Amino acid sequence: MKWKQYLAIMTAAAMVISGPAVPMSQVFAADAVAAEVQASDETTDEKVVTLPAEGQKVSVEAENFTLSPLNGDTVNHVHVVEKDWASDGKIVDYFENGDAMSIKFNAPKAGIYAVTATYRSGRKDTDTPNAFTWEGTNVESGSVDVYGESGATTTHTVTFTVKVTQAGEGVLKFTATNPKCGPQVDKFDIEPTYALPTGEDTLTVEAEDFTLVPKAGEDTSKHIHVIENTKWASGKKMVSWFEDGDAMYMNFYAPAAGDYSVTATYRSGRLQNNPNEFTWEGTNVESGSVDVYGESGATTTHTVTFTVKVTQAGAGVLKFTATNPKCGGQVDKFEFKKKANVAVEGVTLDQTTATLTAKGQTLQLNANVTPEDASNKKVTFASDKDEVATVDATTGVVTAVANGEAKITATTEDGSMTAVCTVTVDIKNTTQPEDADAPKTWGATPNDEQLWYMKQGTAAFCHFGPNTFNNVEWGENYGTKTPKEIFKLTKKFDAEALVKAVKEAGFSRLILTAKHHDGFCLWSSQYTDYDIASTDYKGDILEEISDACTKYNLDMGCYLSPWDIHEDKYGCFGDNNNKKNNNNTGTFTDYNKLYVAWINEICQAKKADGSYKYGNNNPNRRSDRFVEWWMDGAQGSASNRQTYDWKAILGAIKNNNPHCQVFGTGKAVNGKNGEEDKKLAGTGGIHWIGNESGWASNETWAKINIGEDYETLPKSDGAYIGVSNGVQWSVPEVDTKMLAGWFWRDSAGDDTTKSESELADIYFRTVGRGATLLMNLSPNKNGEVGATQLNRFKELGKNISDTFKTDLTKASGVTATADSTWKNSDKYGAAKVLDTIPEGEVYDNTYWAPAEGKTTGSLEINLGGLKKFDVVSIEEYIQKGQTIAAFTVEYKDLAGQWHDFASGKTISAKRLCRGETVEGTAIRINITEAKDTPKICNVGVYKASKGFSLSSDGSSEAVPSNLKKVSINDATREGTWNFEKDEDGNANGSAWGDTAGLAATFTFTGTKAWVVGTADPNHGMMDVYIDGKKVDSVNTQKSPRKLGAVLYTTPDLEYGTHTIKLARSTKALGISKIYYADGSGIFTMKQSEYELMYGGTTEVEITRTGGTKGQAKVNYVTQSAGAEQGVNYTDLAGSVTFEDGETSKKITLTGLENEKADRMVDGKDFYFTLTSDNASIGTANYAHITLYNANVEKTAERIAAMDLTGYAADSVKTLNDAVNEMKSLPSDATKDQIKAAVKKVLDAKNALRAAGENNPAYEAVTGVSLDKTTAKLTEKGQTVELKATVAPATASIKDVNFATSNAAVATVDANGKVTAVANGTATITVTTEDGSKTATCTVTVEIPKTPDPTPTPVPADLVEKVNNEIAAAADKKETDYTADSWKNYQKALEAATKVAKDEKATKADLEKALADLQTAAAKLQKKAPESETPSTDSKNPTVGTEAKVGKGIYRVTNAKKKTVVLVKPRKANNTSFNVPKSVKLANGRYKVVGIAKNAFKNNRKLKKVVIGSQVTKIGANAFSGAKNLKTITIKSKSLKSVGKNAFKGIHKNCKIKVPAKKLNSYKKRLSKKGQKASVKITK
Q: What pLDDT sits at residue 958?
């Protein structure tokens, strides 16, 4: 049976040679059976793969390679792992540095083979990649980089070519080296390739030698296959039945790019009016097709010749496909011949003149090269005046810069033929022309559209669509539901009320989500049925909002999500048709074209009367019909991710709306068109601020860099700060929402509307920080914005209007002075910050600037008398750039004293400084830092509306909301009181006095009170009496003067009626009211920070203090910051009711897992916030929740980084115990076990209590004692047990630690066991873990001396054995063994020789020496052949050899080219280090080309480094932690890469000196490598 089984498997394995892909496991199964047959020989040879012939393919599972892990380590290095995703259930993993995997092969002939590797990788395209690197015998070496995604969740393939140099046997070996290493490998598919001919040679490929791919799931007898034909086919075979959906392809290798003439021999039964077709596409070829025909019955052999263009030298695939109705004919063969070059004869442009009217406007020029079949049609573009218009040399995209005329010339690479387009730039400027005497413009400046938006400051968003009716934020799960099922609006959408409210609130524009990520179109589209026209709604939402915007002349924007979950063409680049109702004859070839078609449809659609259908079509509109286009950053995940054609998309937007600004262009760094698209990144004009919570950073620059994704910029205060010296002006836009979510939902309806004070905070943290505010409104299921939401929005608009309608600086008598002025000219004097915009002009074009060369300065505004205010507005003249980096604001009181009012970093278009209400006669603005000459065009001083006023508490304590109050008017007053306005502007709302006996008594029923009054430099002491008893004296003298200050807060009181008397003690006293808690409680979050695990839960606790009387209702809602609602966590909105006496409620939060790893990033966050219409909410009204993955190492790192001092000991112990339990998980722990352990740690962290916080279950340690205070030991090794008693007996933590003062005398273990070592005295101390209480025991060791014992005779045979073993060493050669094993053997040999010669050696000594020597001899390892294991012989260095030279240790990276990298310094205490140009090894000098990762990591003594001229690479963390490193000199002019965090933690004032000519490029290359921003890169 063994022979039959062997023969059967061999028959199956023969299919490798005769047919398409056959798993090599079948071939190896035959080998296994053969081995069983040869029972006398239990060893098997290495597997040998026979490489395939033309038209065949071999699949080799990675696990069938011979694996060679470094040092034989099969745990941490390359080995086979079982995985469900692998084709055979197994993969090769842990392919680390020094590992290899190889397989023998037998090649039927020399040639190039296409190898397709199936793999997974956890390296993203922004990381250092993995790599397939190969070498071997009978092959040429090579390498290809591969990428995946975080978590290695998706299977990928990569195809590369391996050249076999001759027919016969060989070895293909893949190796892994740092830093790239290898990915997880499933299998390799190997196919032969054809070398395309050169010169006059012809390559003939029989059709049957192509790889045939019949349509999936169809009868192969009626689809493409090979049939015998002995009559007319040259190879006696042909390919027939080439039907719809079939394909045939060949792999090729082209020695050069160019045109190839292909002659196909075929027969066809089709006539000319109904032809067959050869249609081709592939990789490294341009696609095309040619019709062919024959005669009825296909009786005659024909040929057709066509041209296939190969785009570049190298590997490629030529694929012929068949589609109805033409399909393919009967194919015999293809003959390939390199075509001679056809010279270019001329070139023309599609436009010879053009006019651009806006800075940044673009124009696409297209060149036409003749003749049509010219071999080289490459064209470059150039502008003769870059200062007027630039042009992309490759794409022909012209960009307007400044007024004038520029000639754009297209030049052919072949023949230098030219064509010219004259471009006129006529920009309608809104700023004054540059004045030669004026301060110069610094850096990027805004275009007119950006300037308008930043000056207006506010815009409205509207999210409405299927999500509204399905109670979700992201429509990812609609599946096959029809538009009628998901969009159920039947009432008329109330566009009128929405647009009118936005207009009347003073907001500059309205942006509608015309299409969200779900793909549903809110307009009637000709390109999809997934639109509003396919629902029961009788209308077009986009058109209705457009009509209303036209009526009210409101600027309009369009949110058109590029991500499309519904559209099956999303993520596709193939030939897919997108038009509906056209019998699949549409022309789009990928989703990008559909998206562009949608842009054009929205921008170009017209009504029956010829007017435009969409956008603001008012004839008096300010700008384009669409002024902003929203390209949301969402892009889908993993395999279903579209790579956008940014060139086409932005071109369509700009062609239709030349001035339109585009949000979200940072992602163009990874566009379809590579570098062409990358150049468009950041050019849209608007960028995201980085959060959805409604704030910009204190430092906000309206500038970014072109070609960079701004979402990689650093953040501050949770927001992107921009780039101070960025080359592109970009409006920082803050998008946030009125409700808890973007879309109206049952759980996030109008009852989650933000409060007036929340909106005030948002306004001042966005518009007030130089950003723009995009506030979302969410219509409900009736198609209208609910009354609560709409009224709150109107209230926001009114608060803005009321606050800024009266500028105190515009009153008569107000003057301005400055400490210096530009050229002492009134034209740039301080008075320019007070003037108004002249009639007919749009912007304030006058400004103050300090004297030449100054980047600091002060402005003083004399207000013409004592004024009450709380807002100061400062506007920078951004038409000449943004320069100011830090400022302060002061005000002067009536006594002439200056006091701090505000401070900040950037100013930009507008900085609003809001504080408590103060009274002053002047303000002073100090510019303390600027990048260039600062310029301020306007200063305003205002008293905010009541809704925009800060709660004036005057102290660090804030007052809870919804408290009851008693006015000074309702108090029992004694003495003479003078009444005045209070902090809220109420007449007679505050009173003061300065006479003896002045007092006021307030009566309230509750549990706590806050006394509010005036803190003033001229006020004095106030005595406080509660319920008739004096409890405190309070100093109300404070500078500066503050109205509405909290002067005193009572302790918690028993619920009941109380009196609080406030009596003047010295000087004046001012009181306005008391607030009090009525006993129903004050509600706060117990903790402010929580950690939540993806896929886990945690409980947040709402606490009730200050009384528990009666029933109270508290609302709560979750609000996104960086996390996605419904994707990263379960969105909550609801309320809890506290019953009488209840003090606490807990709410469970749930983190959600997602199959797409890039949707679960550590650090995403959201908020849990409390609100109430009636109950008092304390200032600790929210909790911040941060999401993390269940990762043991990272969780442990976060906990280890915490400072646990100040927390209760028992809660710290619980946390530490949980961490230790998590870290002790076995290496094979399941995912559920890991999640459970991590959750336990997070729960313990979330439960940490402050040291003073009461825990009824916890009892502290008060002391400790030992059962002995002295002890005496008289023998070495004698022990005594010490027992500790912790007091009290009921203490919660009884853990203790023992320690000895002198381990040379006595040691002690963790259980108190003391062991004598030598004579002397030692103090044993026990210390409690809780409270560090101690007790001691003095231990005396007195061991009496004993006479030496009589030596025991040593057996002679033992001596003989030792000598024989020593003599055996003479037969061993050092060169036969590895260095480490020989070193250990020599050590044991020397020790044995010494013992053998020692006359005093004991039997035990000899036995040990013999055993050690025999063990070392047994462990001697033979050296592997040089071709398999890198030599460690420094006389013959090979790859991997390390050598100590000078101060460093170097590793050989290429023995042939003689290159090494610096591994690390020989000593860790070097204060300076010079990385040399080269080092001398045994066989010559080696160039030092790199610095390995971690080379100088944590070298805290290193101060200076010089990097040699040959270095091309610096590894990750190379200088990380070298905190005293202050000087780095880089001599190399060929530095190509610098690893992640290479300079993290170096000295903040370090200077990196680089070659002068490399300064600009090296600044980019060395940036963001972990160093602080203060580190300078200089020449």
A: 67
Give residue for tokens 């920078």.
Answer: 876
With H, G, I as helix, E, B as strand and everything else as coil, classify residue 1230.
coil
5 CB-contact burial (10 Å; exposed 0-12 / middle 13-18 / buried 19+): middle
Give the pairing of strands 389-391 and 458-462.
unpaired
Q: How far apart (Å, rounded) are the C-alpha atoms in residues 670 and 708?
A: 10
Residue 761's identity, in one-letter code, is D
Taking a C-beta distance cutoff of 8 angstroms, is the pair 848, 829 a contact? Answer: yes
Cβ atoms of 570 and 642 within 8 Å: the answer is yes
Q: How far apart are CA 649 and CA 600, in angstroms?
A: 10
- Region of 457 please: left (phi>0), alpha (psi -120 to 50) or beta: left
Q: CA 537, CA 516: separation in Å to the nearest integer?
A: 18
What's phi and psi for 1352, nearest 5 deg?
A: -85, 130
Nearest CA to 284 out of 162, 130, 160 is that of 160
DSSP code for 1381: H
Nearest to 1112 by CA among 1089, 1093, 1084, 1148: 1084
688 three-class SS? strand
Longest dimension (CA), the chain: 130
| Closest listed residue to residue 569, CA positions, set 558, 554, 559, 580 | 580
Kindly write down the DSSP assignment for every residue of 1226-1244, as one continuous string: -TT--HHHHHHHHHHHHHH
* CA–CA separation, 894 and 886 (whole Å): 27
Q: Where are the strands (E) in 225-299, listed by range?
A: 225-228, 237-240, 247-254, 258-267, 276-283, 288-292
* E-assigned strand segments in 660-748: 661-663, 685-688, 703-704, 715-716, 719-720, 728-729, 731-737
| Pair of tokens at residue 185 | 């490998």
Closest CA to 909 of 733, 683, 1042, 688: 733
Separation of CA 962 from chain center: 41
**What whole-number distance in Å separates Cα of residue 502 and Cα of residue 694?**
18
Helices (H), 575-639: 591-604
Determine the number of helices (DSSP H) and then strands (DSSP E) in the chain. Answer: 20, 92
For the entire predicted model, the pTM comes to: 0.51
Give the 3-state secondary structure of 650-675: HHHHHHHCCCCEEECHHHHHHCCCCH
pLDDT tens-digit map of 40-78: 333 335 689 999 987 688 999 999 999 999 999 999 999
- Which residue matches tokens 């020094």? 98
How many other CB atoms sit within 10 Å of the CB of residue 71?
11
For 415, phi and psi rounded to 5 degrees? 90, -10
Contact 1488, 1461 (CB under 8 A): yes
Report the sign of the C-alpha dihedral through residues 74, 79, 80, 81, in that order: positive
Q: What gap in Å lies between CA 871 and CA 941, rounded to an integer?
A: 6
SS3 1218: helix
Cis (ω within 30 of 0) for the bond into 179?
A: yes
| Cα distance between residue 214 and residue 1055, in whole Å | 86
The per-residue pLDDT for range 1321-1353, each reduced to its tens digit, is 999 999 988 888 999 999 999 998 766 555 667
The burial of 1576, by beta-carbon neighbours within 10 Å (0-12 exposed, 13-18 middle, 19 or more buried), is given as: exposed
Cβ atoms of 1170 and 752 within 8 Å: the answer is no
Task: Tell me how far apart the alpha carbons of residues 925 and 901 are, in angstroms, rounded to a whole number.
Answer: 10
Tokens 């004698």 belong to which residue?
1278
The 10s digit of each residue's pLDDT in 1373-1391 is 887 788 778 888 888 888 8
Name the 3-class secondary structure at 826: helix
Task: Decide: 847 and 877 in contact? Cβ < 8 Å.
Answer: yes
Looking from the CA of 334 toward its CB, the CA atoms found within 13 Å total 24
Residue 1040: is the preceding peptide bond cis (ω within 30°)?
yes
d(CA 1275, CA 1341): 8
**CA–CA separation, 1457 vs 1447, rounded Å?**
23
- Report the Cα 1377 to chain-centroid distance in Å: 50
